[in-house]
Specification:
Elements lengths: L1 H30 L1 H26 L32 H17 L6 H18 L5 H29 L4 H7 L5 H38 L13 H10 L2
Helix pairs in contact: 2-3, 2-4, 3-5, 4-5, 4-7, 5-7, 6-7
């Protein structure tokens, strides 16, 4: 019986450790869920939209090559016998990775709702990009990346400001801006909290609402086509050339 009791105790303890480990991983994933969402939608942009945009930028027409291929020139400036895939640039994908890295660094350790706001910006931007016609995706892709990058820079700047001013007394802060009188010190002491509130309002409402409003404005800047709403300029030209 003692052996059975010892085995039962070991099994129970092991199950408790496994359950605690599972709960720890679950809570950790829930804590970084905004980051996971941002990475997931950035990956969608990289492997789908960026890849399409970069292929268009890399496209060089030739007689025997495929889409995006060019015929290299040899040392004698004579065309080679066969078409060879050259090493293509991946500027669009690299820019997305840079923006993603800036955003992850900005929101790391940041309290809610800033991480969730950034995640929603990634989601909304990706959805709008897919809703745009092909010839408008390039500009919208650039707008989404720059919008998220600007918001990330605002977050980093606000965190630096708040961490710096948190270590300063009212007298030290007054000396920083060049005023050491008692009246100025009192005013600064009373208004520093107001500045912090304004920064939080800018991060929580002003900047995100500006991003989303411009996103919608760019989405609905032109009236929707009644025949083929998702047709781009190249599709329209193809239809005009092929009509009877």
């Amino acid at each position: 019986m003692e052996i059975i009791g010892a085995i039962s105790s070991v099994v129970t303890t092991s199950m408790i450790y496994v359950l605690n480990g599972f709960l720890f991983i679950l809570y950790w994933l829930a804590d970084i869920l905004p980051t996971i969402i941002s990475i997931a939608f950035a990956a969608v942009l990289i492997f789908i939209v960026d890849n399409e945009v970069q292929n268009r930028a890399n496209y060089r027409p030739n007689r025997v090559g495929n889409y995006g291929n060019v015929i290299p020139v040899d040392s004698n400036h004579v065309y080679s016998q066969r078409a060879v895939d050259l090493r293509k640039p991946h500027t669009a994908q690299i820019l997305t990775l840079i923006v993603l890295g800036i955003w992850i660094a900005a929101q790391l350790g940041m309290a809610e709702p800033v991480p969730w706001i950034g995640a929603v910006m990634w989601i909304a931007g990706t959805i709008v990009i897919f809703a745009m016609p092909g010839d408008m995706k390039i500009n919208m892709l650039w707008f989404v990346k720059t919008g998220i990058a600007i918001y990330a820079i605002l977050v980093i700047g606000s965190r630096l400001y708040l961490s710096y001013t948190a270590t300063l007394t009212a007298e030290q802060w007054a000396a920083v801006i060049g005023s050491t009188t008692s009246t100025a010190t009192t005013v600064i002491s009373n208004t520093r909290g107001n500045v912090t509130t304004m920064i939080l309002w800018a991060l929580w409402f002003v900047a995100p609402l500006g991003y989303f409003s411009l996103l919608l404005q760019k989405l609905f800047v032109n009236p929707m086509a009644l025949i083929n709403p998702l047709a781009g300029a190249n599709d329209v030209l193809k239809q005009l050339r092929q009509r009877n």
